[in-house]
Write a structure and sequence with these properties.
Layout lengths: L1 H23 L4 H7 L2 H11 L5 H10 L4 H26 L3 H5 L6 H23 L9 H9 L4 H12 L3 H35 L5 H28 L1
């Protein structure tokens, strides 16, 4: 399935490259606008491949008390940050990417910052799990921003190519549609994670003490996982 996703993305990317080349040669923008919806499929397929903080999103939401509406907000925040960071890198600092951040397609400095901040969120979740009583989650959007600091590599490629052909607006427009596809996939992950947690908790709804113990255990385990992954990725 992974190979099929890669081939699907490659097909769309090659078609996009042709569209951008035609625009660069004075082509019709109407044809490009007709092609734009493919960006949603492109983004959705891309977000299904490894990465994009799906595991972080699922782990956090499984361990929090967020409802579906907040889970969707977190996934949308993550999607927006993930794509927007890539666009900003390409537009504002493309000549410095290889010097300051690494090769095009990666941003090691931002990746380490993102992982470090997510590690802190993990520690915070562990501390809350050890506390007594009920609490509410307010850091969901922050998790979305932190996880999204790792820029989308395909957005960087698209933006780099569009800028090199003198039509950066085309890259930005396609990035916006890609964002919709990424958000679609991540929102699905968020909803499934929350429904799974709520279904599990429903089974113990008649036993409040067991419910609280399970809730704290899940949050603590999620915190340990986030912190552990952050430490491992930064160290290795």
């Amino acid at each position: 399935m992974f190979q099929a996703l890669v081939e699907f993305q490659r097909t769309i990317y090659l078609a996009l490259a042709d569209q951008i080349k035609m625009l660069s040669a004075g082509g019709d923008w109407l044809a490009f606008f007709a092609f734009l919806p493919m960006g949603v499929l492109f983004g959705a397929a891309h977000a299904l491949t490894p990465g994009h903080s799906k595991a972080v999103l699922a782990t956090y939401l499984a361990g929090s008390d967020a409802k579906v509406s907040r889970g969707l907000l977190v996934s949308l925040t993550l999607s927006f940050t993930h794509v927007t960071i890539a666009v900003l890198i390409a537009v504002l600092s493309l000549p410095l990417v290889s010097i300051v951040l690494g090769s095009v397609g990666r941003a090691p400095l931002l990746e380490d910052v993102s992982r470090g901040l997510l590690g802190l969120i993990g520690v915070w979740m562990i501390w809350r799990a050890l506390r007594q009583g009920h609490h509410h989650s307010h850091e969901g959007e922050a998790v979305g921003v932190m996880a999204g600091l790792i820029p989308c590599p395909l957005t960087l490629f698209v933006m780099t190519f569009a800028i090199s052909k003198g039509v950066p607006a085309a890259g930005i427009l396609f990035a916006i549609t890609m964002m919709g596809g990424v958000a679609l996939t991540l929102s699905s992950v968020a909803v499934l994670s929350i429904l799974f947690r709520e279904r599990l908790m429903h089974l113990f709804a008649t036993r409040p003490r067991v419910f609280q113990a399970i809730s704290r255990t899940i949050e603590g385990a999620a915190g340990l996982l986030l912190a552990g992954v952050a430490i491992w990725q930064i160290a290795f």
